[in-house]
Design brief:
Length: about 300
């Protein structure tokens, strides 16, 4: 009898294996490119001042200097402005907390209104909101600065304690509404079955109870995604804080990294240690939320 066993042609199998190997090589090379800066940063942060500034070695050869990190955080050996690195870190924590809480609440409420409520001009308003995604953020710096300055002048005319400039309102309030967060949550909210809404209506629930009791509990993945985006963008902000702050009272950690310079040179060992400290919270947060982040992106969909 004829052999009817199906088999993959040798040539095709060989081409598939070659393609897979090529993909692995390209991905490995790309991963190496991304990892090298982090390895350089970590290695230099553990070196002595002389070795960090005079050699290109990544691996410390004159001993591991762990005291660079206490020097950065507490300023026992730092000079000038960098003595306040701990203050910059605390400022960033406060700014991030206020921004994440405020932006999450506003994004959830706005996304629910666009997704589940009907009102005149809803689609037109949402379309206008989406148009702002195509405007580069750098273009909005000057208009935002003018608006915040005038708001600051108005409130300080009422009472000096209501200042916005060089204070947390100028760093938080202008960014409480985020178009991408609203868009992402709106896409997920639209996929929630109408049967859940009808069942809630039968039980006497309105929009607020439906939002807090049904929508939010099943939307942790996209909400966590928006929180992660807000955390990263706020934690790494530099241009805007430099514009609206005049001293170190509310300046964030990104500004502090520029202070590790003296006499025209760079204290590379302290700069790299400070960079590791600034990067660590972001990496830890992503490590614990990566599953929710991936799920939030894949389940939200991009349907209108």
């Amino acid at each position: 009898m004829a052999d009817l066993t199906l088999s993959t042609p040798v040539g095709r199998k060989k081409s598939i294996n070659t393609f897979r190997i090529l993909v692995y090589v390209v991905l490995s090379f790309a991963a190496l490119i991304y990892i090298l800066p982090f390895a350089y940063m970590l290695g230099k942060s553990l070196q002595t001042p002389f070795e960090a500034n005079s050699t290109t070695n990544i691996i410390p050869t004159l001993g591991i200097r762990l005291e660079n990190y206490p020097d950065v955080l507490f300023g026992s050996m730092a000079i000038g402005e960098s003595r306040q690195f701990g203050l910059f870190l605390w400022n960033t924590v406060r700014i991030v907390f206020l921004s994440v809480v405020g932006q999450t609440v506003i994004s959830v409420l706005a996304a629910y209104a666009f997704a589940r409520m009907r009102f005149p001009g809803r689609d037109i308003l949402f379309g206008m909101l989406l148009m702002t995604l195509f405007v580069p953020s750098i273009i909005l710096l000057v208009p935002n600065l003018i608006v915040v300055t005038r708001v600051h002048q108005f409130f300080t005319s009422i009472h000096p304690s209501l200042t916005w400039m060089n204070n947390w309102p100028s760093l938080v309030i202008p960014f409480l509404s985020n178009t991408f967060s609203i868009f992402l949550l709106r896409q997920f909210f639209k996929q929630i079955p109408n049967e859940l809404w009808e069942a809630a209506r039968v039980d006497g629930a309105g929009h607020w109870r439906f939002l807090t009791s049904v929508v939010v509990p099943i939307s942790w993945a996209p909400i966590a995604t928006t929180v992660l985006f807000c955390f990263v963008s706020t934690w790494s902000a530099l241009e805007w804080p430099l514009l609206v702050t005049s001293d170190n009272t509310w300046r964030p950690i990104a500004v502090a990294l520029s202070f590790f310079r003296e006499d025209g040179g760079t204290r590379l060992h302290l700069l790299m240690a400070a960079s590791v400290v600034a990067l660590l919270p972001v990496m830890v947060l992503y490590f614990f939320t990566q599953k929710l982040f991936t799920q939030g992106i894949t389940t939200s969909g991009l349907k209108g």
